[in-house]
Amino acid sequence: MTHHCHRCGTALPAAPPVDCPACGYQMFLNARPTATVIILDGDRFLSLVRAREPNAGRWDLPGGFCDGWELPADAAVREAREELNVTVRLDRFVGMYVGGYRFQDETLPVLDMFWLATIVDGQLRPDPSEATGHDWLPLADPPPMAFSTMDSALRDAAALLAGKY
């Protein structure tokens, strides 16, 4: 957590949101955007076994942080290409969920965005630095995922496909 002003370096009297007492700069702690795909094959979705911390070894979905000024939908397509070696077509937007991501000894707020997606090109070859394995799992009964926002998104995706939304 930053305890100094980003602009002038003065020690801050409290955690953000806070105004710097020296220069008046307003500091906020905003959620970092992520983009994730739920790739479907009938009533199953593609899940990866997470290769790195946090939550290494847990089931995961392909996705990651948006780059600065990158549109989240573009980030979702890029992440699928980088992690799986495939091109996806984004289908319906599932939703946005606020969660936490443990990184460098702090928990960062994240705004996780999820899309249903379909593979349209390429040979599925997960990047071994991202995943130690993969499988097609039932959307109606998914296992616990690496992050709670994924659990919520999968429940909402199943409801969306069942016409409950």
UniProtKB/TrEMBL annotation:
Protein name per Swiss-Prot or TrEMBL: Nudix hydrolase domain-containing protein
> Which Pfam families is this protein grouped with?
NUDIX
**UniProt keyword annotations, A-Z:** Hydrolase
State whether keyword Hydrolase applies. yes
Superkingdom to which the source organism belongs: Bacteria
Names of required cofactors: Mg(2+)
The UniProt record lists the Nudix hydrolase domain at: 30-158
InterPro entries the UniProt entry points to: NUDIX_hydrolase-like_dom_sf (IPR015797), NUDIX_hydrolase_CS (IPR020084), NUDIX_hydrolase_dom (IPR000086)
In its UniProt entry, the species of origin is given as Rugosimonospora africana
> Can you name one GO molecular function term for this protein?
hydrolase activity
**Record keywords: ATP-binding included?**
no
